[in-house]
Amino acid sequence: MNINTRCVLLLIGIPCSGKTKLSQSIRSVSFCEKLSDLLPKFKSLTIWTITYDLFPEINESKTYSNNQYKEVRRNIFNLTSKVVQETPSELSHVAINKFVYSKNQNLSSKQPKRIKVEIQTESHNEEKQNEKIDNEKKPNNKNYHLFIVDDNMQLKSMRKQYARLCVDNGYSFLQIFLNPSLQSAINGDLKRDQKFHVGEATITKMYNELEVTPVNNKLSTWENHLVKIDFNLNEEIIKSNLIQNTIIQTPQTYLKDPFKILFDQQFLSLFLHFWKTKVPGLSKNEQLQITKQKQYERSKTQKNLMHQLDLFLRKEFKKMIIKKKIQPKLLSAHKKIIIKKARIESNSWKLSQEQFFEKFLSQFINFTSSDVNSEKNKTLEK
């Protein structure tokens, strides 16, 4: 089977659900050894961990407007996309960790917690040398890459962009949803160092915002590429067999040693199944929604007189600086004055769009330095 060499793994869960602990456990020699036996034609595995909380732009104490926060997340996604597509050999970023595992030698950039110690003997060294020669003779040995994105990812829209990245580039895609009770997460937050506290209000807000669709095997969708680690299910629900792709854990067992779950047979089979399975494209309904949204935004922009006027004035901006040798600061101030006047008149404008542009474009072109100074004086007088 032709398995993809790149897989994007999203960790979903509210703060203090154990995402970082699971991420650290995946970046271990023991798990990499287990995975290397299961992945065909294995040569090496590079694990990239992108931790949103470590980005300087994501600051819990800083209040962003909705648009600012979206812009910050968009920039992080763009950087992550670049890493996934280019896999740079050299990378220095406080929020991105790179760990490389090879069967022949440990190439990790960061020493793992568990180190395998071997007694070196002559026969052992000879076996290793023969194994190395055999591996070199094997054609098409593969360098695998696993990209762990460690974030709350509580909204579907946050995850969909990663699914689209994988669909567009043919990468594998997997989500692991850690689902503790709200109270256990709040209690865990209280045990954190003071500087890492998130706060009960924030955790509760994220818990209520969680958008994780239950797995439905009747539908082919990227949302089904999900493994759920649940701490809340009681025995009656478990026996009903109504849950799909769900692994049951007690909070005490998991948080004490999340490393153990990586060797759970159900977890391993689901993990490999989704790595080997091509992620479905967006559903027809989702594609239709995206198309409609794009068309709406495009028509809204085209109808927006102020936006179109701004584009017209920008084209003339450079010409004005060169022809009239006007200082850019003065010209920029004049442009703001023109836009302000146009905004007032746009509400009651009844003539054509062309006449609207012509009027304010002529005012902009016929500009003199005294125009700006006189406008500034009027503003000061008011």
From TrEMBL:
Coiled-coil region list: none
Name this polypeptide is given: L-seryl-tRNA(Sec) kinase
PANTHER family, alphabetized: L-SERYL-TRNA(SEC) KINASE
Gene Ontology MF terms in the entry: kinase activity
Alphabetical UniProt keywords: Kinase, Transferase
Keyword Repressor part of the UniProt annotation: no
InterPro entries, per the entry: P-loop_NTPase, Ser-tRNA(Sec)_kinase
Originating species: Anaeramoeba flamelloides
